[in-house]
Amino acid sequence: MKRIAIKPYDTFDISTFVIHGNTVHIGHFGGMYNSAGEQLGTIEEQTVQTFRNLERSLNEINLSLKNLLKVTVILKDIADFQGMHTGWKQVFSSNYPVRTTITSDFIDDHCLIQIDGVAGIE
């Protein structure tokens, strides 16, 4: 088993990924801010940025979004489901991972979405 902590998660005493055999367990990812540090206000923007953040980290371990097997999408408000799905379609045009969507409260009021998941190593 291999535990990997990629910035900024290394400062929170948690693993970004845990690799066990050919399976990669993915810790939580969000996307409240774009690459310029500007806060994103819509669920569509945050959904796309969340997956960009995940993809950037997956690239560090030589994987991509194509390796995703399952994603759990956690929404702050179930009313954002359609907007999240609109963002999802901007990220995935085929080879969709399995998806479960749930709701939860978040510590940060501006965070609308978080994800976690499982990827496979070919």
Overview of the structural elements:
This protein is an alpha+beta fold. It is 24% helix and 30% strand. It has two helices and six strands. The protein has helices at 43-60, 81-91, and strands at residues 2-4, 17-20, 23-30, 68-75, 98-103, 113-120. The protein has a six-stranded mixed sheet with strand order 1-2-3-6-4-5. It is globular, with a radius of gyration of 14 Å. The protein starts with a strand and ends with a strand.
TL;DR of this structure?
The protein has two helices and six strands. It is of the alpha+beta class and 122 residues long.
Provide key terms for this protein.
2 helices, 122 residues, 6 strands, alpha+beta, six-stranded mixed sheet
The percent of residues in helical segments reads: 10-25%
For the record, give the distance between the C-alpha atoms at the N and C termini, rounded to a whole number.
Answer: 17 Å
Reported for the largest beta sheet, the result is: 6 strands, mixed
- List unreliable stretches of 5+ residues: none
Residue share in β-strands:
25-35%
Measured on Cα atoms, how large is the radius of gyration?
14 Å
By DSSP (H or I, 4+ residues per run), the number of helices equals 2
Content-based structural category: alpha+beta
Number of strands: 6
N-to-C series of helices and strands: EEEHEHEE
The side-by-side strand order for the widest beta sheet comes to: 1-2-3-6-4-5
What does the average pLDDT come to?
A: 94
What is the 3D shape?
A: globular
